[in-house]
Amino acid sequence: MQNRFASLFIAALLPLLLFRWFVPSPAGQLDFWLMWLVAMVVVGLPLLYAEIGLAHRSQKTPAQGIQELTRQADTTPIWRSFVWLTVLLSLVVAALSINAVSNNVLEATAQMGMSLDIPGYALAVGMVVIAGLLSLLGATTLVASLALIAIAFVMAALPNLSSLALIMTESSLGEWARAVTLALVSVGVGTGLYWFNNPLVSRDPNHSAEAGRNTREIATKTVLPIWLTQLVIGSVALIFSSTSFAPVTALVYALGVLAAGAFFMHYASSQIATRFGRFGLGIATVISIVLTILLVVIATPKVLTMLLVALSVLSALVLAIFSGWLMKISHMRKSLNFKSEGIYNLWRVAIRILVPALIIAAVVGWFVS
Fold this sequence. Notes:
CATH architecture: Up-down Bundle
Number of strands: 0
CATH class: Mainly Alpha
Shape: globular
Low-confidence stretches: none
Distance between the termini: 44 Å
Number of domains: 1
Largest sheet: none
Oligomer: single chain
CATH topology: Amino acid/polyamine transporter I
Helix content: over 70%
């Protein structure tokens, strides 16, 4: 069983780590904050219920559980691609964060008079290797990454509190695209991380979900604490994500990113090792390191950001269609365990129609912005 607080740590970490890639400039745009809030309610919340519902139904890790769920739904194995989308997505997050922060480290050390005479990509590759080795420690790096990144944000935010200002600007479809992106990967829905770290999920491949049916929790008890954490920490990150870092702050943040990269690579390696058990965790970790290095060396932060958006949108659509249209109604109803049929029907309408429609509108917004 997983640490009950792991999902809350993830919900707090992702906004602090990723918001700065999608928040428009200048920061503090009230209309964008309101669009993000709407996206959190109508897109993020239904998808979070879907992911937790699949975790409760399978009670196995994503790579194990998706095989069982597709068999129960009597559907094509192509829907198992959701897990591999989340694996690639986690490696892209690690690559993007490390790639960007390596340049920040070089700038920070130069300002402190300790210039590192190495190319940025070489430093990034070295950080990837270190993160890969740290990933063997498992989820323990999650707490360290959250603590370090939170400290860096506090150090950067305190001097800028007096200059904080909220302004109203003209809304656009491009802003909606960014808001939806924040309600997807930047707060973790569709990444598989909440499924993987759900307390009911067992690492035992022989674990029977039927044996734990009576211990299934009401999904709302799991979802709402995660969602509220995303909302609170996301609001803070939304305001301060564009704040510049002093050299010391940048180095603290870099250490946090290194630990965060290790956690994301741990998720990817665990799913690879679970699906291809003969490889073992060691070989799976090597695969994760090699793939992340390729992403760091071949792609720029801008390209990685575009890849992050594409993968998060595709993963969210797969999750919405599979859970809303292909899973048996009785299975999802029991897994979510809502107190009333009306709430379940409301979720079902949202996940089947509203969520895909709004995500597609966001995709259009990315192209026209």
